[in-house]
Structures
1.
Amino acid sequence: MYLIAGSTGTLGTAIANELSSSNSVHLIGRDESKLSEQSKAIGCEYTVLDLNNTPEPREFAKILDNDIEVKGLVNCIGSVLIKPLHGTSIEEFNNVITTNLFSSYFLLASFARRMKNGSALFFSSVAGTRGLSNHEAISAAKSGIEGFVRSSAATYAKDNLRINCIAPSIMDSNMSQKLLSSEAAIEISKNMHPISKIGDVNDILPVVKWLFSDESKWVTGQTIHVDGGMSTVKPR
Ligand SMILES: NC(=O)c1ccc[n+]([C@@H]2O[C@H](COP(=O)([O-])OP(=O)(O)OC[C@H]3O[C@@H](n4cnc5c(N)ncnc54)[C@H](OP(=O)(O)O)[C@@H]3O)[C@@H](O)[C@H]2O)c1
């Protein structure tokens, strides 16, 4: 069984479609009507999760019968906030941390003990590595995820549970619609990348498939940058 959280988003939908073609999946999200439609199309079950009112992780784990083996978990729940720090309210900061970092803690804390020989996958962002102005909240949340991935990978290595994250730069998705709302904005964004392109799900899906496959069986605790070089490369 593969658990896909945030399955109704752009990446989540692509991952749900890909994984469900040859595996059992269980969807997790916040919007019951979207989840219900998506799970009908795929032929699977779903669970609604309210991040501001969660049960204890061990209670949440009961969404799956005890005898079901959890081979994979992917958290596509995320949000972005680009705002000067002094204009960021406590509520906005907390929301970014809850949506990105707390969701990752909550899902792994719920299922890690049931994932022997499995693979868990989280999403960071280029802002987790590179200091980008006005990205303080998302940078804090995503670098938090990267540290969380390294430490949890150490904790659960004894179970052969591999835990990694992918750090994309800006991709064409629901989340980036506002940021890419004009041709000029798209050009500026493209040109920020050594490989001048906006990302899309097809840049990410092969890495997801690889991290869920046996081919990556010796890879754990890693942040894999899929970002056109933006985190670390400076061309002349
Ligand atoms: N798109 C980019 O440019 C980009 C760049 C770097 C990293 N990433 C990361 O990639 C991952 C996937 O993002 P995406 O591009 O697929 O974005 P997306 O289409 O906006 O998907 C985000 C998902 O998170 C869910 N979500 C948001 N707030 C939530 C909350 N409070 N409680 C529960 N669920 C919530 C959304 O649910 P609804 O469907 O109900 O709205 C949706 O399923 C995220 O972690 C994101 O930070 C994206």
Note: The mean pLDDT is 97.
2.
Amino acid sequence: MDRRSLLAAMGATALMPAQAKQKNVSAHATGWQNWSKSLPPQKAQIVVPDDAAALADIIRQTEGGVRPVGSGHSWTGLVPCDGAIVKLDKFNAVGEVNVAAQTAWLGAGARLKDLSPQLAEKGLAFRNLGDIDVQSLAGATSTATHGTGRALPCLAAEIRGVRLINGAGEAMEISAQENPDLLPAAQVGLGALGILTEIQMQLVDRHKLHRRVWFAPYDKVLADAQQLFADNRNFEFFYLPFSGMAMCITHNITDAQDMPRAHDESDDGVMQLKALRDWLGWFPYLRKKLLAAAIAGAPEEDVVGESWQLLSSARNVHFNEMEFHLPVSEGLDALEEVRAHIEKNRSAVFFPFECRMVAPDTAWLSPFNDGPRMSVAVHTHAPDQYEFLFTEIEPIFRRRGGRPHWGKLNRFDATDMRAVYPQFEAFAKLRAQLDPAGRLLNPYLRDLFGPA
Ligand SMILES: Cc1cc2nc3c(=O)[nH]c(=O)nc-3n(C[C@H](O)[C@H](O)[C@H](O)COP(=O)(O)OP(=O)(O)OC[C@H]3O[C@@H](n4cnc5c(N)ncnc54)[C@H](O)[C@@H]3O)c2cc1C
């Protein structure tokens, strides 16, 4: 008698291996890795449930635990597990829309880029988006994905309700009508409270944006940054390492005529930065001179279009990234310290550093729940080593009161998280209530939410 029949004969609930055939589920072999391939290939199968009942069965019955995945665009160990990696690709519909309240129930597995045009048909749009929009709605909100804008919060802050299957395999709604106290916990949930099937989002009127992109000396941008954040709906800038120059981007609402955007050349630009690094990494003076010449000839943008078509763009050159969210008073100094350190010690770096601002919200695990924060990000080309981000860059961010992006490289452990999130313990307690057997825990989350 095999183990499953033995357990069944004993009247126990047998845990199914991920390979087991279930109704209303498609499963395929994996080797799953995240987008940059910084995480090792996984043995767990990828399973795609057709409906909530099948999802509940997977959570209750899969041996080795279950983790939801969106587009796999996170670097932290949130997804790897031994049992099943669950994709919510079939949960991708636009559900009930309340045009007057500008809210909509949206499939949790839907990609942001697929939702935007459907929302536009109903006269609605996301208030803000990040650099890319290929993430799933649940994946993006679960790690507090953000764009930039002094008055614009992260995407999770726009959640008005969620429907989920919790770790015990039970369906739950958390919204203004049901379990409203739990909403701030569910907004940034890391996939640790349950697997979200639908999310009710607060939206805004469909709108057009005027996008401007220009280059300016880095010192001037640092001096003007606070004003630029104050004067523009969306402002961000990228420092081009070893160049002394920054690229500034603003977006503001407009009714002006569309002005089409030329082919997005940002990937080509990154590869030019790489070429200069490869040829001239050891000759910083020459590298700076050639960078300045290249930047002087770089096209600036002045275009008008639909918000979602301008805010996000493709990122085809793969990289690894660390981003910390800093108190606004520390952000620019942190960036400057990182710049000075890298230009002195790390000539291999060529990806631009990014600086953004995010408005506050009230989600328990939102990095922005104690006031607005300035987000500073450092990227390294995927094939390059990035250990120095942990040993040399993270200490700068830590010293200045930074909270790490939940999806991006960091070495914060449970003690560190407890120290920076007053509601961490409350979240851990709720997690244990909603998933008493730890069905949704993997090694990364067990380390975070294990016993204090
Ligand atoms: C090229 C690139 C650009 C990026 N740009 C930005 C940016 O501009 N701003 C920013 O803030 N971040 C950015 N990120 C980070 C990215 O937005 C986050 O890591 C986000 O979580 C990825 O979404 P995903 O759909 O790939 O989710 P995944 O990485 O697959 O999963 C993220 C988390 O969501 C959970 N999850 C997924 N689906 C569900 C579900 N149905 N129910 C419950 N939990 C679920 C997972 O378990 C995991 O904990 C970028 C990443 C990359 C690679």
Note: The chain has 14 helices and 19 strands.
3.
Amino acid sequence: METVAKPSPLRSILQQRCPRCRIGGIFQYSIFRGFPKMCERCSICDLKFEREPGYFLGAMYFSFALGVLIMAPIAALLWFLTGWWITKVTIWAVVLFLPFAPTITLFARVLWIYLDQTVDPERLR
Ligand SMILES: [Zn+2]
């Protein structure tokens, strides 16, 4: 019997695939191409992505961490290139980060779903 190997977790996260089957998409299309609507359930294994109301509150931790990881190098680069005062550098880093915010917010949800399914997996019934 031939079995199809599951894609790696990292690849599945980057492609926003369901954490259980790694085939079905979490969003209707890639978050790197716009601001897609999130699917309620996996089209393949029927995993419910938003387990309960307020479920994605935890994704804010990932969103914050990703925001800092992106804004800090931008601020450091601006400071290095311009020598501006920290306030001006910070404001410009935030302004330059804003176009990435929607994608970061959705990607944080993907990371949150993967963390949650790793810690407390919802098994197939
Ligand atoms: Zn699935």
Note: The radius of gyration is 18 Å.
